[in-house]
Amino acid sequence: MIVPVRCFTCGNLVADKYTEFQQRVKAGEDPKLVLDSLGLKRYCCRRIMITSMDIVDQLMPYNEALYRRHSEFTTERI
Amino acid sequence: MVSIDVIESSPSRLRVRLGGVDRAYANAIRRIAISEVPTMAIDDVVILENSSVMFDELVSHRLGLIPLKTDLDRYNLPEDCDCKNALGCPKCRVLLVLDAEATDRILTVSSGDLISEDPESKPVSDIIPIVKLAPGQKIKLEAYARLGKGSEHAKWQPTSVSTLIETAKPDEFELCIESVGSLSAPEIFARAIQRIQQSLTEIAAQIKA
């Protein structure tokens, strides 16, 4: 759904580093070096960063469209 | 002769070399650092409104996992608190409020949006995402944080790493404690030792009685 707050295995906080990780990897940096600079040393925390995916983003457009349609509908009626 | 050499010490990580101690005692420090040193975490959540795509349970679980800065001298464990109230008192619980609404675009509600009653007990980081809201969606909740122990739920664990390594010398161990941010690593270590002492005095008193 959305990034896990903590690492499943060790309990380290990982959610606050996810946005930065995504941005830097998309900008073309080597994921390995980004993970190192974020201070994620153990492979349990590193796999969370590499493998998690925000599925909420895929559900969001539906709600956005629904909201848009709803507001159109209410303005039409007035 | 007991000796402690600090190899590395920072708020997030502590490495010490314990000399002249029993393996059992060194291991007790390690275990107590994980499960008996209390920290603050959200435990009760009252959801007043949630029209987001995420379920109430999922949101409250995420809230529970957010580490909160803890001042152990300021708060009591609910079972030790003298208020004896199921709802708690200002000495054993903190109220955090979250109220967010997305208007024209997708909004990521993060831990920084949580407004705490006590400015000292706030989330460790302000950029932990809690929910994402599509336009028109709302979330409004009250969260009650309290002290708890790792033995009850992993969200109260102050450590992410707590390891004991044997060195080449006999009766010498290397203890490594890594903090999740709610308490500093040296404080976890100090509190763990205090906790052992407390348990031992309790046992001694029980034997005498």
What does this structure look like?
The complex is a heterodimer of chains A (78) and B (209). Chain A has four helices and no strands. Chain A is an all-alpha fold and 78 residues long. Chain A has one domain: Homeodomain-like (Arc Repressor Mutant, subunit A, Orthogonal Bundle). The longest helix of chain A is centred in the last third of the chain and has 22 residues, at 56-77. Chain A starts with 14 loop residues before the first helix and ends with a helix. In chain B, 22% of the residues lie in helices and 35% in strands. Chain B has three helices and ten strands; from the N terminus they run ββαβαβββββββα. Chain B has helices at residues 23-35, 56-65, 185-208; strands at residues 3-10, 13-19, 39-50, 93-101, 107-110, 115-116, 129-133, 138-148, 159-166, 172-179. In chain B, the strands form three sheets. In chain B, strands 1-2-10-9 form a four-stranded antiparallel beta sheet, with helices on one face. In chain B, strand 1 (3-10) and strand 2 (13-19) form a beta hairpin. In chain B, helix 1 (23-35) packs across helix 3. The longest helix of chain B has 24 residues, at 185-208. Chain B starts with a strand and ends with a helix. Classes of the chains: A mainly alpha (78), B alpha+beta (209). Chain A binds chain B through residues 1-3, 5-7, 10-13, 15-16, 18-19, 42, 54, 56-57, 59-60, 63-64, 67-68, 70-71, and chain B through 53-54, 58, 62, 65-67, 106, 111, 124-125, 127-129, 131-132, 134-137, 154, 157, 159-161, 178, 180-181.
pLDDT averaged over residues of chain B: 94
> What's the order of the H and E elements of chain B?
EEHEHEEEEEEEH
How much of the residues of chain A is beta strand, in percent? under 5%
| Average predicted confidence as pLDDT of chain A | 92
Total helices of chain A: the number is 4
Q: How far apart lie the N and C ends of chain B? A: 32 Å
Percent helix among the residues of chain B?
A: 10-25%
